């Protein structure tokens, strides 16, 4: 009985404690009911602010990031539901009975937590949006997609799933060359790019490593992606520290290292291994992945037969549908072993070949070739050899020559084609321009055959590393005219004398660290045609007998070496076509060149020579002479240039040498007039040449030229691809430049005087327009611009002007120039005006110019008197509702303290996309309304200026608010 009583007492005690706790909890909820109501009210206010901001950004994203709509609208729906519940509960509290307060208070706490969660998520979304104006989180990498390859697509999904795992930080993607590792990670990168707003990384960085790993090269790629400034001469250790600090400030990043061949010390690169950040690397070797201690590795296998056949058909084209060809084509595709690179290459090689005999022959070739290296040659080189064998004529040699450059090297197409010409791969009989065009066609054909691909810069190409390996294999094993020694860009210190054999045709040791060259090679390489030694800056001397081992040499490139002189033995290279000494900054002595009668290209750019080499006049085959950046060149003897009868290109951009019209001891402009084959010219002339009509016609023969006229005329070096004239520090009052204008696409006049008299002469003497001129720049002219006698042209003298730049010109309006020259600006696309202190308006609209139909970009700065862009004085112009600049996309205005308006009040510029207004405090409205606000991508200016702008309606301001970028004055 006592025992039962004890048990009963324990039970009652537990029940009592539970009832006390329950009563206590209900009491607390009841007491806190009012405070919970207030907390919810405050939380709802905070959520409302975030909701409003998200709604504003959503309007922006309808244009920029439609992929975020689902996520955004889901969040907004959740907000709407939660707010509805909260409002309902607040209404119930008014008539709430006391015993219900406890239950309502409990529900209030739950809803309060949900409101806080939604507010936090909204802030996270806004943070994503805030990077809109910064570097892209993910940069799209161009290249073929693998969406139609099931196995590869599944592999991408697996890698992405691993990225999302907290247990995985480093991922290895490995497989044989050409199997598609780069393509796979590129697909992954681009998938993240499409989902930029939802993917978890603060930055995705892509860097190509390559076989000859260079720490600084990889660091530079990473630094550029992170907007870390590259400092000339900076140590790799210091750059690593700056990269490390930048990455530490990114919450999480993904680093993709492509084409890794050996272990990499991530600390030396400057890569912090922080939580949430991931690294993906691709390599041909599993051991490399393991040495970097990857957490998981994915092997990329070749395509299955079905996918391989589909890829083959895409590249071979419609011919694979032929009843006769299809069975054989399937066997050819099968011989490619499922290797994407081989499939694409062979498919392109067989594209358009309709005869079944050609396919049978191709199949036989694929099966009969005996590989020298097991695996690589069998599965890569032999399919590539089929593509190589299908090249016609000299295309094989052109292709192999590309492999002389280092791995992952972006080759300048112009440089490459010149090599081909000098090697004789392209017929030398045609003119230089024709040969260049023919060479470009060959480059495009090689790209179409997938044997070349786009380089890192415009105008460059490069070889896929597997294709380059194949080409080197062909050249190293060949005993015909392609036997070559290729050791470029591998860090070579000692000259590989033991590898020189008599059968060598070409040697490339470029971009190494060679310290010196031997006096004798040891063997006579009587067939060697090309010796590429550029980029070995440690080389200071070219021994006297070194060149005697290469009597048949056609190309010698010593660019970027530190040689100060050349040996006399150079003169014995009777077959030499190209001598390239570019950027040999210490070279000041060149021996006589009289023996180089077959020389076609002489490049002395950026050397220290003081006078032209002796024997230059004997180079009757010379087509291209580059003396640009010869800052010490003072003398070219009279009579030398006129004897270069084959010369087609003369480039003396930024040379110290000045050409004169007359002279006895120095070369004169008259000598250039005698060069009837000349097609490209860049020189500096002391004064505007006074030429007879007969002589002035020579300029019409030139396809491109740069003439710098005046004692100080100069310009930054540009590609010689225009017809450009720069006149500087000259009195042009007596010089008639009509013959120049009639043949020029671009004219720059800087610090000239007598301009009004010159304009008077133009108006009086010109019987037709200067149709060729498309760009005009006038700088530093103190007087007003108007013809001295007040004459007015009867027609538009510059009807095709597209660019107009006026800097430091003393005028009140551009119309001063417009009226006298009859300008209409119908094709004007770019207008820049700066530092014109008297300028009050750009243009007075009226009879000649009512609007600028093609103006796309307008820049005006530092014109302190400017009050308006356009003078709408005529009533008919003022009454018109049409836009003055219907095509204007970009307007940049800086330091215009008196500017009050851009346009008429009712006018809107419908094409406007970018607006920048800095230090224009009186400007309080923009030609933007609800009709064109959606087109505007960015408005940049000071915050106080933005806040003081007036708008026709609130909708316009709300639309533009997310696109406003504050600028510091």
TrEMBL record:
Taxonomically, which superkingdom?
Eukaryota
Identify the residues that the record assigns to the Disease resistance protein At4g27190-like leucine-rich repeats domain, covering every copy. Answer: 801-927
List residues of the Disease resistance protein winged helix domain: 404-471
The record's annotation in Gene3D superfamilies points to: Helical domain of apoptotic protease-activating factors, P-loop containing nucleotide triphosphate hydrolases, Ribonuclease Inhibitor, Winged helix-like DNA-binding domain superfamily/Winged helix DNA-binding domain
Disease resistance R13L4/SHOC-2-like LRR domain mapped to chain residues: 531-722
**InterPro entries, A to Z:** Apaf_helical (IPR042197), At4g27190-like_LRR (IPR057135), Leu-rich_rpt_typical-subtyp (IPR003591), LRR_dom_sf (IPR032675), LRR_R13L4/SHOC2-like (IPR055414), NB-ARC (IPR002182), P-loop_NTPase (IPR027417), Plant_NBS-LRR (IPR050905)
Indicate the segments forming the NB-ARC domain, all copies: 154-318
Q: In the UniProt record, does the keyword Repeat occur?
A: yes
Q: Which UniProt keywords apply?
A: ATP-binding, Leucine-rich repeat, Nucleotide-binding, Plant defense, Repeat
The answer to whether the entry has keyword Isomerase is no
Q: Where is the signal peptide?
A: none
Q: What biological processes does GO assign it?
A: defense response
* A GO MF label: ADP binding
Which PANTHER family does the annotation name?
Answer: NB-ARC DOMAIN-CONTAINING PROTEIN, NB-ARC DOMAIN-CONTAINING PROTEIN-RELATED
Protein family (similarity comment): Belongs to the disease resistance NB-LRR family.
Protein name per UniProt: Uncharacterized protein
Q: Which organism is it from?
A: Arabis nemorensis
| Source lineage | Eukaryota, Viridiplantae, Streptophyta, Embryophyta, Tracheophyta
């Amino acid at each position: 009985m006592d025992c039962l009583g004890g048990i009963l007492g324990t039970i009652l005690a537990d029940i009592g404690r539970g009832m006390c706790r329950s009563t206590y909890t209900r009491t607390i909820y009841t007491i806190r009911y009012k405070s919970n109501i207030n907390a919810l009210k405050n939380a709802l206010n905070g959520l409302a602010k975030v909701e409003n901001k998200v709604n504003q950004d959503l309007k922006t994203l309808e244009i920029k990031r439609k992929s975020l709509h689902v996520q955004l609208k889901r969040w907004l729906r959740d907000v709407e539901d939660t707010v509805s519940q909260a409002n309902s509960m607040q209404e119930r509290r008014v008539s709430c009975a006391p015993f219900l307060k406890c239950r309502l208070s409990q529900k209030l706490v739950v809803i309060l937590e949900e409101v806080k969660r939604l507010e936090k998520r909204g802030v996270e979304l806004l943070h994503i949006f805030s990077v809109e104006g910064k570097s892209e989180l993910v940069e799209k990498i161009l290249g073929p997609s693998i969406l139609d390859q099931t196995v590869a697509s599944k592999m991408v999904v697996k890698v992405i799933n691993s990225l999302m795992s907290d247990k995985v930080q480093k991922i290895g993607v490995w497989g044989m060359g050409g199997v598609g590792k780069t393509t796979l990670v590129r697909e992954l990168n681009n998938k993240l790019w499409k989902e930029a707003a939802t993917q978890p990384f603060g930055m995705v960085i892509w860097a190509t490593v390559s076989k000859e790993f260079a720490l600084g090269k990889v660091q530079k790629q990473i630094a550029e992606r992170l907007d870390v400034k590259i400092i000339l001469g900076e140590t790799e250790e210091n750059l690593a520290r700056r990269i490390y600090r930048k990455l530490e400030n990114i919450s999480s990043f993904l680093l993709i290292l492509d084409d890794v061949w050996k272990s990499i010390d991530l600390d030396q690169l400057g890569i912090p291994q922080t939580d949430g950040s991931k690294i993906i690397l691709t390599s041909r070797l599993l051991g490399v992945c393991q040495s970097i201690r990857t957490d998981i590795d994915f092997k990329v296998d070749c395509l299955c037969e079905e996918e391989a056949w589909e890829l083959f058909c895409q590249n071979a084209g419609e011919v694979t549908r032929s009843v006769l060809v299809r069975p054989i084509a399937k066997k050819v595709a099968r011989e490619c072993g499922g290797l994407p690179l081989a499939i694409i290459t062979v498919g392109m090689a067989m594209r358009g070949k309709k005869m079944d005999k050609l396919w049978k022959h191709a199949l036989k070739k694929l099966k009969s070739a005996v590989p020298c290296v097991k695996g690589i040659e069998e599965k890569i080189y032999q399919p590539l050899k089929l593509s190589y064998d299908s090249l016609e004529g000299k295309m094989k040699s052109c292709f192999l020559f590309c492999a002389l450059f280092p791995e992952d090297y972006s080759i300048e197409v112009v440089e490459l084609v010149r090599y081909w010409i000098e090697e004789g791969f392209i017929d030398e009989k045609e003119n230089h321009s024709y040969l260049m065009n023919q060479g470009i066609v060959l480059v495009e054909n090689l790209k179409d055959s997938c044997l070349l691909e786009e380089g890192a810069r415009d105008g460059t190409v490069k070889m896929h590393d597997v294709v380059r390996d194949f080409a080197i294999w062909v050249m190293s094993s060949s005993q015909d005219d392609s036997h070559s020694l290729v050791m470029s860009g591998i860090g070579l210190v000692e000259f590989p004398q033991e590898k020189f054999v008599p059968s060598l045709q070409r040697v490339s040791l470029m971009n190494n660290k060679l310290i010196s060259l031997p006096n004798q090679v040891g063997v006579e390489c009587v067939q060697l045609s090309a010796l590429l030694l550029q980029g070995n800056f440690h080389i200071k001397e070219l021994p006297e007998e070194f060149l005697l081992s290469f009597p048949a040499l056609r190309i010698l490139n010593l660019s970027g070496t530190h040689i100060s002189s050349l040996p006399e033995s150079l003169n014995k290279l009777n077959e030499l076509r190209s001598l390239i000494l570019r950027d040999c900054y210490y070279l000041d002595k060149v021996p006589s060149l009289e023996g180089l009668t077959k020389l076609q290209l002489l490049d002395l750019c950026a050397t220290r020579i003081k006078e032209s080499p002796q024997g230059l006049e004997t180079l009757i085959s010379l087509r291209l002479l580059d003396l640009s950046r010869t800052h010490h060149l003072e003398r070219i003897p009279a009579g030398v240039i006129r004897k270069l009868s084959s010369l087609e290109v003369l480039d003396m951009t930024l040379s110290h040498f000045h050409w004169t019209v007359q002279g006895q001891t120095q070369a004169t402009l008259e000598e250039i007039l005698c060069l009837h084959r000349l097609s490209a010219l860049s020189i500096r002339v002391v004064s505007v040449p006074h030429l007879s009509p007969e002589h002035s016609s020579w300029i019409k023969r030139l396809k491109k030229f740069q003439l710098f006229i005046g004692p100080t005329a100069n310009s930054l070096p540009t590609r010689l691809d225009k017809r450009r004239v720069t006149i500087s520090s000259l009195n042009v009052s007596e010089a008639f430049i009509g013959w120049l204008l009639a043949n020029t696409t671009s004219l720059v006049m800087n610090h000239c005087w007598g301009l009004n008299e010159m304009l008077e002469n133009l108006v009086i003497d010109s019987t037709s327009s200067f149709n060729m001129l498309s760009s005009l720049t006038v700088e530093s002219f103190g007087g007003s611009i108007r013809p001295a006698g007040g004459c007015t042209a009867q027609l538009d003298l510059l009807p095709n002007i597209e660019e107009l730049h006026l800097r430091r010109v003393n005028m009140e309006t551009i119309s001063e120039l417009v009226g006298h020259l009859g300008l209409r600006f119908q094709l004007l696309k770019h207008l820049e005006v700066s530092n014109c202190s008297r300028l009050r308006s750009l243009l007075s609209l009226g009879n000649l110019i009512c609007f600028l139909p093609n103006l796309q970009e307008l820049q005006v700065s530092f014109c302190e008197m400017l009050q308006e862009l356009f003078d709408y004085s005529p009533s008919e112009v003022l009454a018109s509702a049409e836009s003055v600049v219907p095509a204007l996309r970009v307007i940049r205005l800086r330091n215009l303290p008196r500017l009050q308006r851009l346009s008429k009040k009712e006018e809107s510029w419908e094409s406007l996309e970018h607006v920048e207004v800095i230090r224009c405090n009186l400007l309080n409205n923009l030609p933007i309304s609800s009709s064109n606000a959606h087109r505007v991508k960015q408005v940049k200016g000071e915050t106080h200026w933005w806040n003081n702008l007036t708008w026709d309606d609130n909708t316009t301001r709300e639309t533009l608010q997310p696109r406003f970028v504050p600028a510091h004055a």
